Amino acid sequence: MRLLFVIGNLGDYHVPRYEALAKLAAARGDKVSLVEVFGRSGLYGFPQEGRIAFFHGSPPDVTTLVEDAGERDHHWWRVGNGLLTALHRCRPDVVVMLGYNTYYSLFLRLLKVLGKRFALIYMSDSKADDGRRYALKERLKRVLVSGFDGALVAGERHRAYASSLGIPMTRSRIGFDVIDVEYFSAASRAALASASTIRCNFGLPARYVICVSRFIKRKNVDLLIEAFCRSQLHAAGLSLLLVGQGPRGPEVRNAIDRMGMSRHIQILGCVPYREMPALYSLAEFAVLPSAYDQWGLCISEAFAAAKPAIVTRTCGVANELVLDGINGFVVEPGDAAALADRVVRLATDDALRERFSQNAVSTVRRWTPTLFATNVIELADSLTGAATLARSRAAAT
């Protein structure tokens, strides 16, 4: 089987996923080729060290179509030409690509309509409760999505949403939003041996709760600030560490000042991927208070670092990775009082926190790049097998 993996930019999160896929494919005698559309990230302002190391190793069958541009720079002609060249060179049985609504995914969808013979799988972490949905838009989306052959999504709620858009459950798998659990676990353990140095380098407080989030409205960072203030845990020496940046940065800082919490809430801006395990390792637990979140990779990272978490019900990880009362707490979005209550319970009960931590490690062991690779291959096998059978039946008649 020949697979073509198409992605806008191979960021640090995607590198271990692709490497696991390439390794599994090679072990089976399959061939995987990678097309990176753009060489620059449209999301992260700092260098993607994992991507740099990956390309420095000169991996085989890897192409970047537009090295000096990012997603917003478009380059339709160069991208279209590059994809046609890649398809001609690789002759894939299956094309796996990130998203279903980029112009290059639509281009591949069009090529399939025009007769190109490959199965088309999209990867996504959208689910039904990601904000308000509009009936007309969902109907149009269904027309588009139902033309794909399969979907690799984050979790079971995401599978249900893909099904509502026309992808039968038999043609979807989970495992898209995984992290390099082994790396995060090892790096967080190593960081504990250098705790004093790390605290000094980042200016970290003695005890803190961590929230890794962009500063945008739906992330509800201001609600967490309110809940933390209500908890009064700052009086017992616990701080809140916010790792992130975004357009609502000024509002976040104003909320901290307005509540008189500037001595107890610290903000770190962009922290490179490779340095994040150190911040998780020294935290008490993680919080993700979003109005909704497609998944919540920061919670996967916290679990890999043996830290429990508090999340809202509308986060993708809720009730799939984060199990209420087992390895963390799940609260309703927008409920500052409930969030404050769970923060207090987890911060003040050492035995509970330790039990949740152990369960977090056990839970996240499944959500690895191996799961991603296995399910991509399994889905591709099922689609190509079905296609081969259909062609055989057509030939027989």
UniProtKB/TrEMBL annotation:
It holds the Pfam family Glycos_transf_1. Signal peptide: none annotated. One of its GO terms (molecular function) is glycosyltransferase activity. InterPro entries: Glyco_trans_1 (IPR001296), Glycosyltransferase_grp1 (IPR050194). Residues 207-360 form the Glycosyl transferase family domain. The keyword Transferase applies. Keywords: Transferase. PANTHER family: SULFOQUINOVOSYL TRANSFERASE SQD2. This is Glycosyl transferase group 1. The lineage of its organism: Bacteria, Pseudomonadati, Pseudomonadota, Betaproteobacteria, Burkholderiales.
